[in-house]
Amino acid sequence: MTPRIKKLIGTICMLAWLVAYALVISALAVHYLPHAAWYVSLVFYALSGTLWIVPIGLALPWMYREPKSR
């Protein structure tokens, strides 16, 4: 697979991931956090604001890996 195609696929997947993640986190926050204590909200938003990067951090090395020479 050419580097250009890998970057295109990775970019599309990252955008789809971010949209889906934001929708799920928003739904969870609206459902569970309206009457939660401030520290529960703090932990929730701190974790959810950090965890979105894990799948992207795993995809980036794949996207930028040089093709194997035969």
Structure characterization notes:
The chain is mostly helical. It contains three helices and no strands. It has one domain. The chain is elongated. The two termini are 13 Å apart.
Global mean pLDDT: 93
Total count of domains: 1
N to C succession of SSEs: HHH
- Pick out the low-confidence regions: none
Radius of gyration: 17 Å
Helix and strand composition category? mainly alpha
Beta content: under 5%
What's a quick, concise take on this entry?
This protein is mainly α and 70 residues long. It has helices at residues 3-32, 38-51, 53-64.
Name its key features.
70 residues, mainly alpha, 3 helices, 80% helix, 0% strand
Write the layout of secondary structure elements.
Blueprint: H1 3-32, H2 38-51, H3 53-64
Helix pairs in contact: 1-3
